[in-house]
Amino acid sequence: MKKEPLRYNTKVLISGGSGLIGMHLTSLLLSEGINVAHLSRQNNHFGRVRVYRWDPENQVLDPVILQDVDYIIHLAGANIGEKRWTSKRKREIVDSRISSTGLLYKTIAENNIRLKAFITASAIGYYGSITSEKIFSEEDPPADDFTGNTCRMWEEMADKFIDLGIRTVKIRTAVVLDKSDSFLSRLLRPARFGIYLLLGNGRQYIPWIHISDLCNIYLNAIRKESMHGTYNAVAPQHVTQKEFMKTLAGVMNRPFFHPSVPSFLLKLMLGEMSGVIVNGNRISSGKIINEGVKYTFADLHDALDDIVNAR
Fold first, then answer.
1. What is the pTM of this model?
2. Per the domain annotation, does 143 fall within a domain?
3. What is the per-residue pLDDT for 288?
4. Is the residue at 72 inside a domain?
5. Are 202 and 251 in contact (CB under 8 A)?
């Protein structure tokens, strides 16, 4: 596998750098001697990282910011699990991804900026909010539901960079395991009292990935010229939600008391968004493994133990 040698002054610009993934990724890239900057709607500095202001909603981005950038990692986008999916919120979720990617494309195209690669987040929501016996791979078509259509439009906008001769990588991300501000942090709240909630029937799969392995995939996307197109960022171990919670109980050394929250109640509480919670499929990690990317946490027990019992 050919790796592109990184110059000492290699510069990576991250949109959404102050989020969960962005913060961990920034720390990793800095430890590798890579120059990192952030795009943000705020002017605040982020440790050793310079922050440049942009305004995707109003299509404002100074092209000077991009002149010396080698790689863009595009993580910006409204959190799909933060609010109930009203019609307005769904438009915000879509627009935050499409307009921000479009602004980057327009600025780069109009100013003839030569990136080495454009690397964008996507999500396993591409395959839809369903549960089936199928194991989905990157060759499968998008689902015709809100998450599927959102990811499809997101990726289609990213594909415009290919027309500019820029190597383009799309990372379809699974549930990210980290202790702070994440899916796992929400599960840990009742788990401290020995309660491990099953959402729906518990038989839906939870495709997952440890934050360290996800950031390593992004690092490989920078380094490996062979990486282009779409990759599932998901651990190779398939687990159901019940298996996930039982493993979490074992890691926390607590009895596995698992009351169930019925699907109809979740739908009443969350509306359409409940489909993401009560459904879930197995997702293949074969393509990223074939790129030579190795997982530090391929086993769920090891991943949860590292996060929950970190010293």
1. 0.91
2. yes
3. 97
4. yes
5. no
